[in-house]
Write a structure and sequence with these properties.
Elements: H1 15-20, E1 26-38, E2 42-49, E3 52-59, E4 70-79, E5 87-98, H2 117-122, H3 124-127, H4 131-153, E6 157-158, E7 164-165, E8 177-180, E9 183-187, H5 192-202, E10 204-212, E11 225-234, H6 239-260, H7 262-267, E12 280-282, H8 283-294, H9 306-320, E13 324-328, E14 341-342, E15 345-349, E16 351-356, E17 359-366, H10 371-380, H11 389-396, E18 402-408, H12 409-417
Helix pairs in contact: 4-6, 4-12, 8-9
Length: about 425
């Protein structure tokens, strides 16, 4: 009988360990052949490893390998500043663990593969092996890390809410309906109800998970499944407390990226935005400012058009030096039924969006916490309180003033790395045309 003790030491060195070795030392590594350059008497093999590539040198035809093979290699470390990381491995022994059956369909070894987006996404299982693509999703890892770590330090509890639900959180028709053992059910648009329900339990909660929107959009900014980073916090004095918390979270995200993801940022030529302070402007004032500065007529008084978001971001970048801007006090007509109205002018809500480089990446605000007020707002919006009995238990049995937000991971990532299409920041995008691979 065998027993497991949790010891995970490996006989193989990491790329970082090899790069730190002195010349002449022996190392044993494993990885996948990223590229192979045959110069006749010598082959240069780039081995793809978790944190990057290691250059290996093979003499002559000693070992028959091809791109895509999984190998274990052993050899002598040679210091050479021309090699990635300043060192290379001169291979003396090599075993092939798994062979690639065919040649690569695309040039993954190039920095930019120059593929159409459709081709890239159709071959995603292969194209994600490209080093630039890998860097994108390491940066995304850092964003999630920074979000989680900041909130944990602030006393937030991480939760995991269901994604099959009986009620819609946002209203509207953008729901994926499904059959659930003879009952009607939906894929969750948002963890909104659940995170509000957890405020009386833990006071401060957050969640990172998928949400689903059956929106018939085919734009560069929309996905039908995306990752939302949500938090909800109780005992707030104002919805501005939520904005302050998001600012603190963004500051930590940028700190984590700067500290631990510098190689990926450099590979993607990313300049991190400043987030020491973020300006805030009222919705109606932002529209007026853009209209006056850029001569653009206000067409929709109740929402921001994509062009307006771009112009607001441009204005605040040029005049205030900030690539982020909070737009506050959205009209009640365009906000969900749980958004708290501004007591000074109920036509507007105590809510906000965060714009980053011309794109809305966050929606948040203060929620209604009084039972009677919530019932009345449902009725004013033509909704039936009976359809929301479960949700109304939050208010009926006591909660506190609270608010929160949802931050779109793919949107934030795409803007950070300078990509226009949000699909570039999604591992396996889901839109109207795409459910594979």
């Amino acid at each position: 009988m065998k027993t497991m003790s949790g010891k995970t030491q490996s006989a193989h060195s990491t790329r970082e360990a090899v790069l730190a070795m002195a010349a002449g030392e022996t190392a044993k590594v494993h990885g996948i052949v990223h590229t192979l350059r045959d110069l006749g008497d010598v082959k240069f093999m780039l081995l793809r490893m978790p944190q990057g590539v290691l250059q290996c040198v093979i003499s002559g035809d000693a070992f028959a390998v091809r791109e895509g093979d999984a190998v274990c290699a052993e050899g002598e470390v040679i210091r050479d500043e021309r090699a990635p990381g300043g060192a290379e491995l001169h291979v003396t022994a090599l075993s092939i663990l798994s062979r690639a059956a065919e040649a690569m369909p695309v040039p993954i070894g190039k920095n930019r593969m120059n593929l159409s987006l459709d081709t890239d996404l159709a071959l995603r299982f292969v194209t994600l092996r490209n080093l630039r693509k890998r860097a994108v999703f390491k940066v995304q890892e850092g964003i999630v890390r920074g979000f989680r770590e900041a909130l944990q330090r602030e006393g937030f509890t991480e939760i995991h809410s269901p994604k099959i639900v009986a009620q819609n959180a946002e209203g509207g028709a953008n729901l994926f309906r499904m059959e659930y053992f003879g009952r009607r059910a939906y894929l969750a648009q948002s963890p909104q109800f659940y995170k509000q329900a957890m405020v009386p339990v833990y006071e401060r909660v957050f969640e990172i998970g998928p949400v689903f929107r059956a929106e018939k959009h085919n734009t560069q900014r929309h996905l039908n499944e995306y990752t939302s980073m949500d938090f909800e916090m109780g005992f707030i004095e104002s919805f501005e407390d939520v904005m302050e918390m998001e600012t603190k979270v963004l500051q930590n995200i940028m700190h984590v990226l700067e500290t631990d993801y510098a190689p990926q940022l450099a590979a993607l030529h990313v300049t991190l935005p400043r987030v020491d302070t973020i300006p805030a402007v009222r919705f109606d004032e932002a529209k007026r400012m853009v209209s006056e500065k850029y001569g653009r007529r206000i067409r929709d008084p109740f929402d921001l058009e994509p062009e307006e978001e771009q112009l607001i971001s441009r204005l605040f970048a040029e005049e205030y030096g900030s690539e982020f801007v909070f737009v506050t006090h959205y009209p009640s007509k365009k906000r969900p039924f749980y958004a708290a109205d501004d007591p000074e002018d109920p036509r507007y809500t105590l809510s906000f969006d965060l714009l980053f480089r011309g794109l809305e990446v966050t929606t948040g605000g203060q929620r209604i916490h009084d039972y009677g007020e919530q019932v009345q707002k449902l009725l004013r919006k033509g909704m039936s309180p009976e359809d929301f009995e479960g949700y109304l238990m939050i208010h009926k049995y006591g909660t506190c003033p609270h608010g929160g937000l949802g931050l779109g991971l793919e949107r934030l990532t795409s803007r950070l790395i300078g990509e226009v299409n949000v699909r570039e920041a999604c591992l396996f995008p889901r839109d109207q045309q795409r459910i594979e691979p």
